[in-house]
Amino acid sequence: MDLSLESSLKSLAGDSQVPGQLAGRPLEDWNAAYARVQSYFHALRVRNQVLLGRWVLHVLQRAMQRAPKEPERSAIELAADETDRVVTEWFGHVLQEPSAGPSHLLSTRGRLALLLADMPGKWQDQFLGAGPWPKEFVAAMRETYLRAGPDFQLSQMTPRQLDLGPISTLTNISRLPYTKMVVIWVIFAVVLVAIFLLTH
Questions:
Q1: Which residues contact 48 (CB under 8 A, 6 or more apart)?
Q2: Residue by residue, what is the 3-state secondary structure of 18-87?
Q3: Domain range spanning residue 119?
Q4: Does the N-terminal or the C-terminal CB of the chain have fewer CB atoms within 10 Å?
Q5: Rounded distance, CA 195 to CA 190, Å?
Q6: Within a domain: residue 174?
Q7: Does 162 reside within a domain?
């Protein structure tokens, strides 16, 4: 971790720190959390390094504020959770959808809408920013968000007879040929046993 990043994180976490730790977690853990959050934003195709650094630090600041209250969770867990919360809250504002409901649905469909609306190509500077946003951006996000949802259709299923293929014809054959075959093999076995007893 370079000095500028470390000093930024220390300023976020506050002054009362144990050497080698931030918010009660080792620096290496926060470094790993930084890389994880950065990878998440890279997956959303945020390429601008200034914006990327700013939003990663914003997420880590929120994670560090939670860290003393949740000592059982690692820095990576806190950062991953905060990343999803920050992005989902932003989707809720942009799309005017309640983020209090099933957030995984809003998060999933929001990320899909983000890519379908080509946010990384056209409006990268709007990502996670506070409103007001350009009308074209909001319209594109809302339109693609609605398209990202499943299309529900009423359907009626009528029961059909199962086609088991060739196996079903075997069960429909008369048992008479099999009976004849079994009788012939039994007679053949008896003859063999009789020959063996007579010769020994």
A1: 124, 125
A2: CCCEECCEEHHHHHHHHHHHHHHHHHCCCCCHHHHHHHHHHHHHHHHHHHHHCCCCCHHHHHHHHHHHHH
A3: 3-148
A4: C
A5: 9
A6: no
A7: no
Alpha-carbon torsion 146, 151, 152, 153, what sign? Answer: positive
Q: What is the pLDDT of residues 65-120, one digit of tens each?
A: 888 888 888 888 889 889 888 888 887 877 777 665 555 677 777 777 777 777 77
Q: Is the pLDDT of residue 2 over 50?
A: no
Is residue 81 in some structural domain?
A: yes
Amino acid code (one letter) for 61? Q
- The rounded Cα 149 to chain-centroid distance in angstroms is 16
Q: How many domains does the chain have?
A: 1
Tell me the CA distances in angstroms from 18 to 10, 25, 27, 28, 46, one per residue in order.
11, 9, 10, 14, 34
Structure tokens at 59: 């997420």
What DSSP letter does each residue of 123-140 carry, written as one string? -GGGTT--SPPPHHHHHH
Which residues lie below 8 Å from residue 130, measured CB to CB, with a gap of 6+?
Answer: none
Q: Is 173 left (phi over 0), alpha (psi -120 to 50) or beta?
A: beta
Q: From the CB of residue 46, how many other CB atoms can be counted at a distance below 10 Å?
A: 20
